[in-house]
Amino acid sequence: MGTVDISPSKIHILAFPFPAKGHINPMLHLCNRLAAKDFRVTLITTTSIFKSAKTKAIGSIKIECIPDDSDEPVEEDLKGFLARLRAAASRGLEELVEKCRKTDPYPPRIVIYDSTMPWILNLAHRVGLHGASFFTQSCAVCALYYHMDQGTIQLPLDKAVTVKLPSMPALGSNDLPDLQYFPDPDSVITRTLLDQFSNIDKVDFILFNTFEELEDEVSWKS
């Protein structure tokens, strides 16, 4: 019986961060850790971000860009930006995967994407890749967002409220995410934060950016 070589050097991972520094940096840090373990890693970004980076690789991490139709400055609100990003990713990811399958001896097998772009999971599955949702905020904060999405924590937040959640201490209003600047539960920002969990039951892998030393009493209890 033959054997299958599943060494890291033969596993190609795509990484797709949300195109903003606060999201790119955590994803890049993860990519560096994966590359250090000998995985083949390609970081996906948009044309505008790619131009500002002025490089085709970071260490052993390859960079690929998808067109985002932003050769000229675009004045738009967050809703418009997200719609344009989604349209660009829908076209670009499929084309990139197809190109890799034609030119790379080890085509991509999984895409790690920022959790604020849950719709990438559907794109990944459509082109035959596994999807891994990467939450860039801490595990404890993400747990709060999850309970907001589930309705355990009611929006808009009440300043006098005390929230009690599983495996977490009692939380006052000062301990909760500051949503006072977008109190409408249906606002674009609020929905972007809460929709991270819209298809959490279908994702193949879930990754959290967390600190065991800071969350030892919270994160690891069942």
Explain what this protein looks like in three dimensions:
The protein contains seven helices and seven strands. The protein is globular, with a radius of gyration of 19 Å. The chain has helices at residues 21-36, 47-53, 78-103, 120-126, 139-150, 188-194, 212-219; strands spanning 12-16, 40-46, 57-58, 61-66, 108-114, 130-135, 205-208. It starts with 11 loop residues before the first strand and ends with a helix. The mean pLDDT is 82. The longest helix has 26 residues, at 78-103. Helices cover 37% and strands 17% of the residues. 26% of the residues are buried. The chain is α/β, with parallel strands linked by helices and 222 residues long. A seven-stranded mixed sheet has the order 3-4-2-1-5-6-7, with helices on both faces.
* Oligomeric grouping of the chains: single chain
In one word, what is the shape? globular
What low-confidence regions span 5 or more consecutive residues with pLDDT below 50? none
Taken as a percent bin, the fraction of beta residues is 15-25%
Helix content: 25-40%
Calculate the terminal CA-CA distance, rounded to whole Å: 41 Å
Strand order of the largest sheet: 3-4-2-1-5-6-7
Total number of helices: 7
Helix/strand/pairing category: alpha/beta
Q: Mind summarizing the main beta sheet?
A: 7 strands, mixed
Mean pLDDT metric: 82
Order of helices and strands: EHEHEEHEHEHHEH
Based on CA atoms alone, the radius of gyration comes out at 19 Å
Count the E strands: 7
